[in-house]
Predict the structure.
Amino acid sequence: MPLLSHLGPWAWFVLGGVLLVAEIAAPGAFLLWLGLAALVTGAIAYTVALAWQVEVLVFAALAVVAVLVGRRVTPAPGKASDRPFLNRRPEGFVGRVFTLDAPILGGVGRVRIDDTVWRVEGPDVAAGRDVRVTGADGATLKVEPVEG
């Protein structure tokens, strides 16, 4: 490994930087941990004179530890979120009942939910009546009147 011995600890800093940039280019939260292991290996090699073979072993051990720690720190893919409608807010309104802010005329009206006015579509209903959200199409809520 003449390049590794020639550059010394800087080879690890360069490798760590390349791996971190590669993580940005192709995110998957895997190269991040290898990049951090390479940077730590570079820091160790900078402070303690080690043979390149030992440096490679240190990197391998740190990479395994970093990946294991990374798996504990990051959430598992497909794990249920505690906020399932975070980026799908209209879908979170399905099944709920709201009072119309403006009448539904020609199939289109408005409802105020918290501090936001939402467009609704459904059968014609007077303002002030309660409607149940049955679905969402983008930022438009599909509603039906609540009986009684």
Observations:
- The domain at 89-145 is CATH 2.40.50.140 (OB fold (Dihydrolipoamide Acetyltransferase, E2P)).
- The chain is about 40% helix and 25% strand.
- The longest helix spans residues 52-73.
